[in-house]
Amino acid sequence: MGQIEDYGLARSKWDQFAAMRKDPLLKGMLIPTKKYTFKGFKKGLKRFPIIFLKPEIGGKGNGIIKVARLSSGYLIQGGTTRRFVKKRKKAALYIHQELNNKPYIWQKGIELLTVNGRPVDFRVLLLKPDNQWKTVGIMGKWAKRNKIVTNYSQGGQAISVQDALIGLPSSHKSVAQIEREMSKWGIHLAKKYFNYSRMFGLDLALDKKGKLWILEGNTKPGYKLFRYHKDKQLYPLIQRHVKQILKNRKWLRRKR
């Protein structure tokens, strides 16, 4: 499998999924995903109780819509706006009009791990200051109340992995085991698909049963949430590494 062509934050979510689903090691870790069509999405509403729609190109949680099937109809939420529609066809038509022909994907909704009723997912930050990928830190991203996304830019908060895992059964893996597993997948994906880069952020999710899911990879990952890591030396270390990586990148451009 070749490297995924990079467009920074504007990388196609569909291209990522299409490449990764061919990797046998990732079987069962990728959320069922389809390119948006009206017909396919309408069928999806019948099949899945929750669906998330995401812009194929974009980031920072912008444009994401959640559709939840209730006993009396469908609840549609984007940002902090909510709308209730009784019929499946009307829900599908409303979404179709909202998307306005923009390229979107839709995914089966996963029951994410929550803390105080607010969803949590995780950012694994990897850097390659030399020629080896290193996991420099892992932090949880905790959604703002009444928000459907965890992004820091959308009001999400940083939360330690240990605090985020409170909602898991006590019989589940330890924090150290989960962090090792997250790091392992981060390094695997960085090497296989994003090795041309020197920065990589992998967003992962745990569902309420403790199963790990891959959300998205990013070669221009935000790292401000690591200011709140328990290791107060980590954020300055990340800043120094990133500064050196960017300096080397500028030098290579001038050399060309």
How would you sum up this structure in a few lines?
This protein is an alpha+beta fold.
Per-chain topology:
Elements: H1 13-20, E1 33-35, H2 38-47, E2 50-55, E3 65-70, E4 73-78, E5 81-85, H3 88-99, E6 104-108, E7 114-115, E8 118-127, E9 134-142, E10 157-159, H4 161-164, H5 175-193, E11 199-206, E12 212-218, H6 234-255
Tell me about this structure.
With 256 residues, the chain is α+β, with helices and mostly antiparallel strands. Helices cover 29% and strands 27% of the residues. The chain has 2 domains: 33-108, Dna Ligase, domain 1, CATH 3.30.1490; 112-255, ATP-grasp fold, B domain (D-amino Acid Aminotransferase, Chain A, domain 1, 2-Layer Sandwich), CATH 3.30.470.20. It has 6 helices and 12 strands. It has a 6-stranded antiparallel β-sheet, sandwiched between helices. Strands 7, 8, 9, 10, 11 and 12 form a 6-stranded antiparallel β-sheet that branches. It starts with 12 loop residues before the first helix and ends with a helix. Mean pLDDT is 89; it is low at 6-10.
> CATH architecture of the largest domain, please?
2-Layer Sandwich
Runs with pLDDT <50, length 5+?
6-10
CA distance, first residue to last residue? 27 Å
Number of helices: 6
**SSE pattern:** HEHEEEEHEEEEEHHEEH
Structural class: alpha+beta
How many structural domains are formed by the residues?
A: 2
Enumerate the strands of the largest sheet in spatial order, edge to edge or round the barrel. 1-6-2-3-4-5
Radius of gyration: 19 Å
Write down the overall geometry.
globular
Strand content: 25-35%
Helicity, as a percent range: 25-40%
Overall pLDDT metric: 89
CATH superfamily of the largest domain, by name, is: ATP-grasp fold, B domain
